[in-house]
Each structure stands twice: as C-alpha cells, then as structure tokens.
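re: ur msg from earlier - yeah i can do the zinc ion complex, just paste it... oh wait u already did. ok heres what im feeding in:
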Amino acid sequence: MTPPPSRGTSRPAPARVVQVSPLLGLRNLGRGSFDYLPPDHGGDDLCVGSLVVVPFGRRLVDGVVTSLTSSNEVAPSRLKSIVSVGSQSLSTEMMELAEALAGHYLAPLGACFQAVVPTHRLASREGRPGRQVSWVAPIGDVLREGLTSRQSEVLAATPVEGAAVADLCARLHVSRTVVAALVEKGALTATMRSALHLDDEDHSSTATAGPRGLEGSEGGTGLDVAHDLSEEQARVVSALSDDLRLGGARERLLWGATGSGKTEIYLRILSEVLAAGGGGIVLVPEIALTVQLVERMRARLGNTVAVLHSALTPTLRAREFERIYQGRARIVVGARSAVFAPARDLRVIILDEAHDSSYKQDEEPRYDARWVARWLARRHGALLLEGTATPSVESLRPGIEPLEMHTRPTGANAPEVEVIDMRRQGGSGVLAPRAVAALRKTLVAGEQAVVLLNRRGYAAYLMCEECGEVVMCGDCEISLTYHRGSRVLACHHCGRRTAVPVVCPNCSAAALRRGSPGTERVVDELRGMVPQESLFRLDSDVVTSGARVSEILGRFRETTPAVLVGTQMVAKGHDYPLVTLVLVADADTGLYMPDFRAAERTFQLVTQVAGRAGRSQAPGQVLVQTWNPDVPCIRMAVAREGYRFYREELATRGRLGYPPYRELTRIVVSGAREEKVEAGGRHLAGKLRTVLEDVRGPARLPRIRGMGRRQIVVTDVDPERVRLVLERSLNRYRAPYARRGLDIMVDVDPQWFN
Ligand code: ADP
Ligand code: ZN
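and the outut:
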C-alpha cells in the first residue's frame, strides 16, 4: 500500500537502490550484500545478476547485483554509485547455485560468485586491450638459415594459419623473445587479433593442442576406434542408456575395477547424449594426469569437446568458455572448476575417479565439485555418473546399488599381489632385496615398472644422532624435508627453504641422520641398477606444470625398459600396457594420519597403483612393502577383498558417528597468540555445546605459518540444524574474534584435518 502524499509538501521519489555482492573472499562479509545507487549514466538495463564494478572501501571491485529495490528510507547522499555495468549478466541458475553454495558450505557469498563467474566476463575486464592478442603466422618460403635451434623449433611448430603468441610460448615453453626474433628475421608476421572471436579452425590447432609431448604420441594408435563392448560393459551401457531415455535426475555409481574399461562406457554415453542433441560435463581429478582420457574423447567425439585445464592461458580459457557458452562445444572436460562451465542442455555429468579428494577445494569457497554436480544434475534432470575402481566409503552408503565391472576386456588378468613384510627384511635400502630382484628381472625382460612412494624429497626429516632433535620449520610445527637435488631443507606446508645444517643446530655435537625416505632417495638407490635414460620421477617437485607431467609420462611410455618412481601421481588413471611390475615402496605412509579416512585412503592407493600393472597380455606383478601387513586396510587391498573392506569400514563409521551416517563440519580457530587461540577455541566449543549434541574438541593442531590453531569438529544427524546454528554463531562471533586477532574458518564436509 502506498501512503497518500502528505499535503503541501512534495515528497521525493523513492530512491532506486541496488544490492551488490562484492566479489571478495572475505569471510566477515558472510552472505552480505551492500546498497549502492545506480550508475550516474545509463544503468537502465540493470537486473539481478548484472556484473558491475563498485567502490568498496578504497578500492574498486567487481560485484554481482543480488537485488533491486526502491526505498524511501535510505538517504541517497550516503550511498555510493555503481561505477560501471558490464554487458554480461549471470543466469538465474548460476545466481541460485552461488547462493546454494554459500548456504551449504557456509562460505562467503562473494567467494561463491567468484567461483561461478568466469574471470573474462567480469565487468572490470570489459573493454580492456587484453581482448586483442598478438598473433603470428609463418611467411611462406623463408630461409631457414641463421636461425638458432630453438627458433627453428618454434617456427616449425607454428601452424600455417598462425597462432596467438601467448599460446605458442606457453605450449613450447619459450619466452616471447624467441618469437620476436623470428619476426625480426622475417620468418613470422605479427598482427593483432581479437581473442574471443577466433573461429574453430584456429581453435583446433591451438586451444585443443594439449600439453606438449602428447600431440602425435597417439598418432595412428586407433584412439578413435570404438571397442566392441564386453558383456559387462554392455550391461552397464544398457542400464545407463535406459536412464538417459527415461530422463529425470538420476545418480549412478560405476564401480569398475582398474582396467575394466570405464572410459569406453563414458564415450558411449557421451555419444548417445550428443546424438540426442544434449551436452555433458566430464570431471577428472587433474587434467595433466588424465591426458589419455582427454585424447580419447577428442579422437572419438571431435571438436565438440572443450577442455578446461590449468595450463591454458587466460585467453584460451576464455575462448574455450565462449565455445561452450555458444553451444559450439557441447562436452566439457576439466578438473574441479569445470563443473561451473555453462554446458548447454546438460544431460549427463560424469565424475571420473569419483573418490578423489581433489574434488574438494581447499580454499574459500570450500566446495566439493561432487556436491555441485549433484545439484546441477537435479536441477537439469540429468544423469550423474560416478566412475571409480575404489569408491569412497560414503558413496557406498546403504541403499546404493553400484553398477559393477570386474574383468579386463583386453583379456589381461588382474595382477598377482604379494606382500613384503619389512619386519623380516635385511638390507638398509628403501627397497627390500625381494623387490630389487623383481625389478632386475623386469629390466632384463625389457619391460616397465612403477614404484610408488607417497612422500617426496629425500628424507622427511633430519634427526640428531646425539640429542634426538628433529629439524623443524621456524614457522610451522612440521619437520623440514631434506631435498638432496636442490640441497635444501623445505617446509612442505609453508614452502620455507633453508640451508642444510652440517651438525645438529640444537646440540652442535653430532651429525644428522636422515629419516623417512622419499622419492628422491628411491631414485638415488636405483641409479646403480637402472640406466639414466630409463629412470623417471614424477612428483610435485619435478612437475612444475601440467605440460611437464605429460612430457614425463610421454617419454616413459616410449622407453623400454623403464622405471617410473613417484608419489600418488603415478597411481592415477594411466594406462601403460608395458608396465608389468608395480612396487609399493611403503604402504604405510598414510596409515597413521589423524584422519578418519586414513584406512580408506590407504586401501584406495594400494588398489589403484596395483591396477597399473599387467594391463595388456604380459602378466603383471605387484609387490607391497609394509611394516603392517596385518592392518586390515592393507591386508584387504592385497587380497582384493573390496566388499569386505567397505562393509567393515561402513560399520566402523556408523559406530564412531562419521560420514555417511553423519555430516561432519570442521571449525578452525587460528591466531598468532597461542593463549588467545586456546581461549577462543574453548569458548566457541562451549557455546556450540549448549545447542549441539556432538561437538568434539577443541584439539590442538600444529602451528602453521606462525599461527596457532584449534580444531572443533561438529557432527549431527540433522545437518541443516548444524548449519543454522553455525551460521548464527559465525555472525555473532566472527567480528569480536577478529578484534582479538582470531580467525574462524569453517569447512563443511572436510576432506582434510591437518
Ligand atoms: P579403466 O578406466 O576402467 O581403468 P580403461 O577405460 O582405461 O579402463 O580401459 C583399459 C584398457 O582396455 C584400455 O586400453 C582400453 O582401450 C581397453 N578396452 C576397453 N574396453 C575394451 C573392449 N570392449 N575391448 C577391448 N579392449 C577394451
Ligand atoms: Zn613452514
């Protein structure tokens, strides 16, 4: 109802007020939006979802319009105006998704918007010169003389139609000066081009050119040939086709042993979706480690596959995104954040290696792509297909009937698995004599071996032989890892690097002993036995980019005999037919982590890496070194007692009140002053205990980057109630805590407790 105008005075027209959520990850902003006035000029087409730039504090920041109102209450003079309005706006669906994320994960709304809005569409990016890219193309008959070898290489790799300089440099790992020299020498011409409106022809030679080292490596290997389905595969495909035909939101778990041919299933389902005019999203844990999958998809499905990965330059990323948005690419393959890609007519979302914890983001917003995928599948009435050889215990919750595949369609038998009980082994090396013998045999036979040690560096700690002191990071309560190659001690938490002390820094009396060997040490041990060019290492120390991974794996694939040593990176979905031996150097690395998923992760890692052996005709062998052969998760992984492992683990979870029976939320109070952190942790836990049933902690966590930390874990059978309580508590305590120098971090459905 409008009040009658009061007589005599002319009331001012109500002000148009715009609520904007600034795209900032600040926790204390919570779900808040802020009032602004429309821009001084234009702004007629402002709507909910408009991308804008607003003044915030002393800065200009990007924002999203969350609502528009008219108000008599605000004094317009006290509000600032929107600075500019972008030409793009967020769809209703993406608005709802951001709100849902903020609600479910108790995450700052601004950070959630940041996750769903692609960077290149932000209002602040519009009209920037960055939309033009420098483009080079070869000039017909040029003299190839007078070029350095690097220059010739770049020239040879430049497609006839040309390429964006940034892409070329990124792809070939060269600096712009090399390209500039070629222009200077008249071998290339340089022009400017609009970045986003390059057509698909250009695209196929640049954007889809994956990390280097892959192109061509698959040439003529028949990647584009569809296999005749095995009986098991046919059964699965038929069940999934029925799901697609019936339509509606559905969730399926495909529990297929390693090598059972899950990729072929994905390809069939995607072809079916494409034939019906639909689109799909395929998520993988890490693109670099799943290059083969991507290659097979492109080979079979063609240019309709868009790939989003971290090695893409911002321009290429934007271009892939626009192809998806315009419907020119209908299948999106990518890691976690690709779940936000705007695939048209979404019919299927496939989560490969669905158990992988990297689907959870470790910073605000702490979302899980699996949760987002489920949300989208429900919203679109699409099929959600989770594929894995080692499901998470949660995904096998009672009532779920997985589609199962047990055999390898290539006819290969599952490898033979044997335990090496380290308590009964002589020798001082990381590898037991039995393991060394098996490795020798593999090398002599001209075959390949994979050695898994889930710990990088040379030694996880240095300890004084006299006083027992372990050299720790000055900022974190974590031992420093000895890296022999780079001759430093490094903190694997904060990255701090220091020189290696000659004697104990504590007592100066004795030398330091190296404890807990890592991948570097294994490589060292193997040097005498394996020729230099046959020895490969894959861990995050040698892998500086996605391209590096592909390069290492590409070379390994083509070398015989060869040994690949690495961390869990070597356990993921690779398919290397010549690997006949898999060695797990230490199955116990993850066993005693303070994490209720420790047993599950150990089981998964051993099972996954074992699956890398014996993929083709040559029989495979797996050797598992452990000090704990009787620990159930190791015993059952070795004996391939999957059903039993999951049954027993589910029973334990039920007993202890862990997922899937209860949802878990972790709260970490942190700050520089230890006594304040302690008091803050206790106070918050006490307050929560008055309203919630199961509040565990506060427990002390190791100091990280100089910050003391206390962890509180909350579980409840009614997660909505927990969310409500926590949201209220956060609103109430965050500001006073901040004034005492304390931060409160909340992680709903956490994957890590460190
Ligand atoms: P997973 O992802 O389940 O570990 P892959 O999809 O990588 O397994 O398949 C393992 C191997 O089996 C691949 O080399 C693949 O080409 C091959 N393969 C898959 N399906 C068939 C089939 N029906 N007939 C023959 N070979 C197949
Ligand atoms: Zn540190």
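cool cool. The chain has a mean pLDDT of 85. ping me if u need the other ligands too
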